[in-house]
Amino acid sequence: MSTPASGLAQIGKSVFIKGELSGSEDLYVDGQIEGSIALKGNSLTVGPNGQVKASVDAKGVVVQGKLEGNIQASDRVDLRKSAFVTGDISAQRISIEEGAFLNGKVDIHRTDTK
Length: 114
Fold this sequence. Notes:
Elements: E1 8-11, E2 16-22, E3 26-29, E4 32-46, E5 51-63, E6 66-68, E7 71-79, E8 84-86, E9 89-91, E10 93-96, E11 101-103, E12 106-108
Parallel strand pairs: 1-3, 2-4, 3-4, 4-5, 5-6, 5-7, 6-8, 7-9, 7-10, 8-11, 9-12
């Protein structure tokens, strides 16, 4: 695997984090996280091996693995075909590939309320 691009933090398969996680760069998770994730202006990607049990607040969220918890995205949420999500999603846009699993409600919000 090549080295990550600047501005991208990675959590590998063997890493387990419990607690509050926040940052100001994009995050790729292939390990396990329990707690909360706050990446207000950045994106979270849960890789195919990722297992996240956390409330998530980020600009964008891409899920390929397992995520248990509510997702609050200021922009977009993408659930890929291997995604397994349990929790409510609130975002401006959402994309769900065929084969993805979602158990929760979806709230699409708009920024312009004319």
